[in-house]
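Hey L., structure's done. Input below.
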Amino acid sequence: MTEWDIKKLRILRTLADQGTVTATAEALHMTPSAVSQQLTNLARQLGVPLLEAQGRRVRLTDAAHLVLRHAEAVFAQLERADAELAGYVAGEAGEVRIGAFSTAVPVLVVPAVAALRLSHPAVEVRVRETEAAESYELLSAGVVDLALSLAAHAPTARDPRFTRMTLLEDPLDVALPPAHPLAGAPELRLADLSGDPWIYGGSGPWSEITRSACEAAGFVPEQAHSASGWTAILAMVEAGMGVALVPRMVASRAAGVAVRVLSHDRPTRHVIAALRRGSESAPAVAHALTALRAVAAARG
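Output:
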């Protein structure tokens, strides 16, 4: 029978995620030579070539992709076994590590942790603020158990590594300077702001969201200033330097600006929770997910 080495299979999966041996070594805290040696040994054990040269890089062979398809089922079953064992050994106790993007931490994660302290005091939660796009690398590598990100960053629902669900539909509001002529208007459309200077990031999903929302309303926004942090964006809006779309999660904590709910064509972003497939029955993870869902439902 073919010998399957779980540790080496995890290295192969990480290489598939990271793309290079160097990046794989960094992600796993190994040396590149150790990664290469482990994969060479795995290929010898399985009796098939797993890597082939592509210039100065390597690519996974068709046999490697076949191996990974079966390995994902193995990893999911191991996660379920770990979850059941944790429930047997620890009962209601356990640890869950949550990775979440910055605006989700105070709005979703902190209230969920507070609720868990009351309902399941033996569950220990460790929170890590992450970039939304980074969450899935940390989840795949086992650094976090639950990842909160935006739908724009999430793998497809067909990705066999993860179970994912929508936690929250977060509407986008518009932030105006307090003295803006439309700050007190009874109704507001995005198209009403087509002639205003806009503030949003120079690249990335939020700039795409802003441009797409404005274009759907019939105009291309004039980007007067570029910023990626909400503190900077809201400070510029307060100073009268322009207007900005802001998610409701941010708008609820904004001060010094006029936040208006759009009456028509209101864009929405989706907050996604994901975990490694098979780990959803681990007691600590299940309790944390239940608490996050309750907080998200209360906001909805």
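The CA atoms of residues 104 and 249 lie 8 Å apart. The longest strand covers residues 162-176.

-- N.
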